[in-house]
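Continuing from the previous page of notes. For each protein in this section, the sequence appears first, followed by its structure tokens. Read the first protein now.
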Amino acid sequence: MKSYILIRSSSDEVFAQSQKWTLEVLYENLNRITSKSQKIRGARIKPFTDKKTITSWNALMVSALLDAYEAFSKSIIWNWLKRT
């Protein structure tokens, strides 16, 4: 399965003119396409996420920050720890 990243090379106005559409028609088409895409994405089976591994990595990071604070006593590390 291929993935595509869409990159806009022109404004809405320029694209609508190139298709001989009004901006209203362009936005109607975009809304219709977006609705279809969201419906299809909603029907997909979500991939499994191992939450224990993510929690483990987060705990490891906090532990490392605490070690860094103990070693260097930098207030910037303490402020970062308070946010986590």
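Done with the first. The second protein uses the same format. Note its length before scrolling.
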Amino acid sequence: GIHNASFVAQTLDWHPPHLYATLQAAHRHPGLAFVRVLQRCPHYMPEVFTLLEDGIAYVCQDGEALNDPGMAESQAIVPEEHETAVVRAALICPGECIFIERDDLT
């Protein structure tokens, strides 16, 4: 966890004025600042992503959320019929939060 933070806030990527004001306040704060930004990625591809109660979207496979970000256990095989939509989701996602690996590239 984060220790000794004297400025803690949460904001939303779909509310730019609040996002900007929150980040500006965190930047001006003289101590350690922590800002959590909630993002809306699952709306772009709900067949592959799911939104959990923590407000974060995770990749989903066989109905199970793979919620260990950055770890091999969070990688899912995307069905071929959804590949184009997942690539589009990765391009649209505001937080660069979708990473794609392709087996056909060497």
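What the second structure shows: The chain has a mean pLDDT of 77. The chain has two helices and five strands. We return to this in next week's lecture.
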